[in-house]
Amino acid sequence: MSAQESNFKRFVEVGRVVLLQSGPSAGKIAVIVEIIDHNRAIIDGPLTSVPRQAFSYRHLSLTPFRLTKLPRGAGSGCIRRQLEKDGIVAKWEKSSWAKKRAAIEKRRSLNDFQRFEVMLAKKARRDAVRKAVAKA
Q1: Distance (Å, rounded) from C-alpha 133 to C-alpha 85?
Q2: Which sign, positive or negative, has the C-alpha torsion 102, 103, 108, 112?
Q3: Spans of the chain, pLDDT less than 50
């Protein structure tokens, strides 16, 4: 029996950066500090104002980022230094996943007039593209 490479690339592990899907800190990132059991982990996000707490895996999304040198049960100061050194928050904000979430949030926060302006801009763009294609 030969060893096959796993399809899974992101694992629940100490140092894994996660996106919180629910609760008061939803949409923020944090780091897994300690694994409690098969259902929960202790997370902490000192740079994103996420308090240290037990959190269910069902309400977490694993990101591709991780802190490699993080010891188990590390304190907030150690996590803060590692996050700043690796620039994880900046990497997250540059990722397409974070940009897409920001765009969706911005779209949700538009009022009626702003949605109307977006519609007019789309019509103008569509008209310009149509004229360019017809001319070519």
Answers
A1: 49
A2: positive
A3: none
Q: How far is CA 25 from the centre of its chain?
A: 12
Transcribe 8-44 into DSSP letters.
------TTEEEEE-SSTTTT-EEEEEEE-SSSEEEEE
* Reduced 3-state DSSP string for 72-124: CCCCHHHHHHHHHHHCHHHHHHHCHHHHHHHHHHHHHCCCHHHHHHHHHHHHH
Q: Which residues contact 70 (CB under 8 A, 6 or more apart)?
A: 14, 15, 31, 33, 78, 79, 82
Cα of first residue to Cα of last residue in the chain, in angstroms, is 59
For 38-60, the pLDDT digits (tens) are 999 999 999 999 999 999 999 99
